[in-house]
Automatic annotation (TrEMBL):
Residues 149-176, 214-241 form a coiled coil. This is DUF4407 domain-containing protein. It comes from Flavobacterium aurantiibacter. The lineage of its organism: Bacteria, Pseudomonadati, Bacteroidota, Flavobacteriia, Flavobacteriales. The keyword Transmembrane applies. The chain crosses the membrane at residues 28-51, 57-74, 95-113.
Length: 365
């Protein structure tokens, strides 16, 4: 049962192969097994690749089956159409397009499996990339809000500087009228004279202005601080919004890029392994000597070709004979239109019967 299944996979004619030796049959069983297991590997590769895209096993399995069926049919077609010729050069020429197709299939199959084999190393590369993206996103968001935050900081610093300058002025006026009262500066007279009263009046006025400025500055600083907090909250929110997107940076394309960042040799050897598996049936048929099955297949094809060519020649001869008979009949009966018409009708019936008989004979062949 398994032997017949692998022969079916090889694309060989089972009736012809039954006439061959056990060794010849084993060769095609091996070819069929290679075609089958290549399709199995294609199923695993496609299923894993689609699972990384959809994060769901069901669509991944369905697409994997479709892809495996496609690869199976392509491999079976490639192997079954590669026929042994009398010239090795002709065999190589007909094998070249099939080898190119096999190379493409091998690359497509190997990539998802390489991603699975080097999964841990790829995860490390992706983590590094995600960190870079997070830092880059944070920097971009901070740059976006930097101008507004800088304006708020500048305005805050300006208000605080104005308040500090006013406090310094009030303190200086305070020290001035105290020194006047103590007689250490100014008029150098102890007591609260006219100059003292003038200086304390200036201080009191400045103190009133300072109190008013403190209230205004406090209100403005509260508003600025509130705006600053809103901007910082919005900034953190934008940074947080990008985190889920960055964390999902592990799709198929990202993993392929991460795989390309890894050393080339291990990945290359795995691809070459799949290339050998994919091209093994083609190379086996190409390098193997012409066997019993090849001779039987060639004999069968030549027999069908000869039979068809012979039947075509018979049909052409029949048409030529009918045309000659028709011309002779019309020449003899051209004076009688009714007889000419009857002759033409009879000739057509004869030819129609011959053609139908030929068609049945060709169909049976």
């Amino acid at each position: 049962m398994l032997k017949r299944f692998f022969i079916l996979c090889s694309g060989a004619d089972r009736q012809l192969l039954d006439k061959c030796s056990e060794g010849e049959q084993t060769k095609y069983v091996g070819i069929g097994a290679t075609v089958f297991f290549t399709a199995v590997m294609a199923f695993l590769a496609a299923t894993y690749a689609l699972f990384t895209v959809f994060d769901s096993i069901y669509p991944a399995v369905i697409f994997g089956l479709v892809w495996a069926s496609l690869i199976f049919n392509l491999d079976r077609y490639i192997v079954s159409t590669l026929k042994k010729r009398d010239s090795f050069t002709n065999e190589v020429l007909q094998a070249v397009p099939r080898l190119v197709l096999a190379l493409i299939i091998a690359v497509v199959i190997s990539k998802p499996l390489e991603i699975k084999i080097f999964e841990k190393e790829i995860d490390a590369v992706l983590l590094s990339e995600q960190n870079k993206l997070a830092l880059q996103n944070k920097k971009e968001v901070q740059t976006y809000f930097a101008t507004n935050l800088q304006d708020i900081k500048s305005e805050t610093d300006s208000l605080k500087a104005q308040l500090a300058a006013k406090e310094k002025e009030v303190n200086n006026l305070y020290n001035t009228y105290i020194a006047e009262a103590e007689g250490t500066k100014g008029t150098l007279k102890i007591g609260k004279g006219p100059v003292f009263k003038e200086k304390i009046a200036k201080h009191n006025t400045a103190k009133t202005e300072l109190d008013s400025l403190r209230k205004i500055t406090a209100a403005k600083l509260a508003t600025l601080n509130e705006n600053k907090q809103k901007l910082e909250t919005e900034q953190e929110s934008k940074i947080a919004q990008a985190k889920p997107i960055i964390n999902k940076y592990d799709g198929l394309m990202a993993r392929i890029r991460a795989l390309n960042d890894l050393p080339t040799m291990p990945s290359l050897f795995i691809m070459l392994l799949f290339l050998c598996v994919e091209t093994a049936p083609i190379l086996a048929k190409l390098l193997a000597p012409k066997g019993t099955y090849d001779y039987l297949l060639e004999e069968s094809e030549l027999a069908v070709k000869s039979r068809v060519e012979e039947q075509i020649r018979e049909l052409k001869l029949l048409e030529k004979t009918y045309e000659q008979i028709q011309n002779e009949s019309f020449a003899a009966l051209k004076t009688d239109e009714q007889l000419a018409s009857e002759s033409k009708k009879t000739g057509k019936e004869i030819l129609s019967g011959k053609i139908q008989a030929f068609g049945k004979k060709y169909a049976q062949a």
